[in-house]
Design brief:
Order of helices and strands: HEHEHEEEEEHEHEHEEE
Structural class: alpha+beta
Largest sheet: 6 strands, mixed
Shape: globular
Radius of gyration: 22 Å
Strand content: 15-25%
Oligomer: single chain
Helix content: 10-25%
CATH class of the largest domain: Alpha Beta
Strand order of the largest sheet: 3-4-2-1-12-11
Amino acid sequence: MTLRRLAPFGCLLALAACTAGEREPEPAWARPAADRSGEFSTLSYNVAGLPQEISRVAPAGNIPLISPLLNAWDVVLTQEDFDWWQPGLDRLDFARYHERLREKATHPWRSPRHPGPSAVGLFVPTQRPFLQVGDGLGLLSRFPFDDVARVPWKSFGPGSGDGLAMKGFSMARVELAPGVTVDVYNLHADAGNDAADAEARTAGYRQLAAFVEERSQGRAVILGGDTNLHTGSDEGDARVWREFLGKTGLRDVGEALAWDGRGCIDKFAWRDGGGVVLAPLGAAFEAGTFRDGAGRPLSDHDALSVRWRWTAAVARE
């Protein structure tokens, strides 16, 4: 039975309570809009969870240092949160990155480990003959969310070893308050610099736009991640991003805030919908937070944070 169907019964109960000299609390649907709003924070961080032998940083030591630092944000999106899918490969010190990243995090809701290449047949026929790891996408949240949908890119370019991973995007419906939900997307776009890589990225964003319009039609959306689009210095990348935003109705947070870091590849975008209005209050690269004891960065990306205010439209009878 829905809240709307319960409304007449709630009125009868309130009348009975007033007769007895007690006032029943006002139901959520009758509260003023000011009582249906709040603030929260998000973080997007490519944690560079590559094998120690090929990484430009030191993930075996850095991933455990990152873990407790994530607690400062309510919703955390991670990329390159890879986990080796085969047992017995601990010599790479790679199989436990997923667990180590979460070991000291206190977020009660967490996306599960990606099942890895053994499950690729469940999604799309693989064209990646050297596939080694899953999508590397993780979600940690202080708000509940439903099952995570994971979608690999249908195509990939030859650069940057993209064929080794099931890179793509994920989506989860996050509940900010009872009845107030936002579709949260996490992505890691195809990398590489040649024409085939650029073509694969363009195709990927068109694939993502089609998914957003199918699965999140009319709904509020927050999207974050490693876009691999240098929109501040590459007109081709900027054109791909503008096309994607136009198709989905999303707005670039950095552009909306006229923020200095808006041209970087790590981005957030959003739109309102489903009676939920979102407003970015500020964005920042957390370069000073994610450092080791010697002041060295813990990843080859800086973590990007955004603070938000949400307001839910209140239905009235």
